[in-house]
Amino acid sequence: MPLFHHVSEQEVTRAIVTSFLRQFEEYASSDVIIVGGGPSGLAAGRDLARSGLKVLIVERNNYLGGGFWIGGYLMNKVTLRAPAQKVLEEIGVPYQEANEGLYVADGPHACSKLIGAACDVGVKFANMTIFDDIVLREGNRVAGVVINWTPISALPREITCVDPIALECKVVIDATGHDACVAKKLEQRGLLKTVGFGAMWVEQSEDLVVEHTGEVHPGLIVSGMAVSTVYGLPRMGPTFGAMLLSGKRAAEVALEMLAKVGIA
Ligand code: 48F
Asked: Does residue 129 form part of some domain?
């Protein structure tokens, strides 16, 4: 007597395809699309989905978490400064105090719990999916994203001519880290000016990144290290409190924007 229930190969295939397509169709339109599944994108997504919004995170890698798995220099300990340890407490991540107001946690534990917390409240993910371009509507308002499979974008141009597809939403959050990919697309079209991130200065950068998190163009919010790239703020290296608090701030701004159009 086999341990597992009998299923055929085709049943397994159908279960995957049907479930994937159902979600893909549903998320052709969302309230908020977050590009980038690093710490700031995940923190923003969690707060927005918790408020009842339909949220999709587009991530070019197969794995989520961005730079949050590894603190710095290939050492998997992440540091956070007060008051950001409260987010760790909220999602159940143990931490130690290294110095007064400076905390250390295990990267894999913090990152997996943050991913889990976003999943628990209903955030959906399009992984192995690369942001390719933006959708603009009246007044150049950002109204969606153009995406393609990551493997397609990695193939040489001469053997691929696969057009991307577009997803619509009310608000886009650029949480692509130092690259600030979404903001850079607006810059290519002469709609935004990005400065490029400055030299490392943790003491300054964390406050500045959270303060500058917000709408940079109608329909587009920047969050996390993308904020420092847009405004030329100092980088902060292996400390993550500002990523979590910037994500939370981005969620607040998105909620305010959606409230104005009667959605949140
Ligand atoms: O880089 P990342 O972790 O950004 P973050 O949330 O946090 C920054 C910190 O990790 C660290 C730091 C401060 O502590 O300096 O760097 O601001 O996560 C960005 C995510 O965006 C994805 C990328 O794979 C990563 O998971 N991403 C980047 N470009 C694209 C993208 C793109 N074009 N399409 C889809 N995903």
From this structure: yes
